């Protein structure tokens, strides 16, 4: 096995805080929306917990943003500027996930400290972290105090529109977490990627040299 250190400690701490926070937001959000069905918390406590966790995750988000903007780790998720190469790499990755993985073919992407995300992950990471997450936090803040932000809410179409956007993104994140866990199980073992996010080290099977392969 070849071990590569790709997940620094600050990233791992942020990741697990973020993961736990989003799960709790989903649970408390369900309790708020379906108070008559679920009985985990009182309606008032569910709202309080939802708000507290939301503010904690907003703070956690800005820690992530500063870490990636102010360190060289920003390069691990920015796509290359060579559009043709990036397009071809993306097609190879799509083929692997939809066909090659079921035939035991090797992953075309090899994890490195400055290339830990494959082409599909790079695009999704940026869409989620730089677009969807800020929109979710923004709509959450508006719903937290509709009176204080009434002018913003009305400019966006009213409470119904803001709430609908918030709920749709909630559904996206609930689905995203399930897909994320599934894709995390597609390492050389089902637990390899999860262990990497605990230890910081990604493990890959070393490729045999040509002579060995021929033999």
Overview of the structural elements:
The structure is a single chain. This protein has a single domain, classed as Transmembrane di-heme cytochromes, Chain C (Fumarate Reductase Cytochrome B subunit). The chain is 65% helix and 4% strand. The protein is built from 8 helices and 2 strands, in the order E-H-H-H-H-H-H-H-E-H. It has a two-stranded antiparallel sheet. Helix 1 packs antiparallel against helix 2 (43-70), helix 1 (9-33) packs across helix 6 and helix 4 runs antiparallel to helix 6 (159-184). The protein is elongated. Mean pLDDT is 84; it is low at 209-215.
Strand content: under 5%
Q: Assign a percent range to the helix content.
A: 55-70%
Structural category: mainly alpha
The top-level CATH class is Mainly Alpha
> What topology, given as strand order, has the largest sheet?
1-2
The Rg value, from CA coordinates, equals 21 Å
Which regions are unreliable across 5 or more consecutive residues at pLDDT < 50? 209-215
Distance between the termini: 20 Å
- Total beta strands: 2
List the helices and strands in order: EHHHHHHHEH
Total DSSP helices: 8
CATH topology: Fumarate Reductase Cytochrome B subunit
Characterize the main sheet. 2 strands, antiparallel
Gross morphology is elongated
Based on the coordinates given, report the CATH architecture. Up-down Bundle
* Mean of pLDDT: 84
Total count of domains:
1
């Amino acid at each position: 096995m070849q071990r590569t250190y790709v997940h620094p400690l600050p990233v791992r701490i942020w990741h697990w805080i973020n993961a736990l926070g989003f799960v709790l937001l989903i649970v408390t959000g369900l309790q708020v929306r379906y108070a008559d069905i679920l009985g985990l918390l009182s309606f008032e406590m569910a709202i309080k917990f939802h708000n507290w966790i939301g503010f904690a995750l907003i703070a956690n988000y800005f820690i992530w943003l500063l870490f990636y903007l102010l360190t060289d780790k920003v390069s691990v998720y920015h796509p290359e500027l060579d559009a043709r190469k990036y397009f071809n790499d993306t097609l190879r990755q799509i083929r692997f996930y939809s066909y090659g993985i079921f035939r035991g073919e090797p992953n075309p992407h090899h994890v490195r400290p400055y290339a830990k995300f494959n082409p599909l992950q790079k695009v999704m990471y940026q869409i989620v972290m730089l677009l969807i997450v800020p929109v979710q936090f923004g709509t959450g803040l508006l719903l937290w105090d509709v009176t204080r932000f009434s002018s913003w809410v009305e400019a966006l179409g009213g409470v119904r529109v803001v709430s609908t956007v918030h709920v749709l993104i909630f559904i996206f994140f609930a689905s995203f977490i399930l897909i994320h866990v599934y894709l995390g199980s597609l390492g050389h073992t089902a637990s390899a990627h999860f262990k990497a996010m605990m230890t910081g080290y990604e493990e890959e099977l070393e490729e045999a040299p040509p002579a060995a392969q021929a033999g």
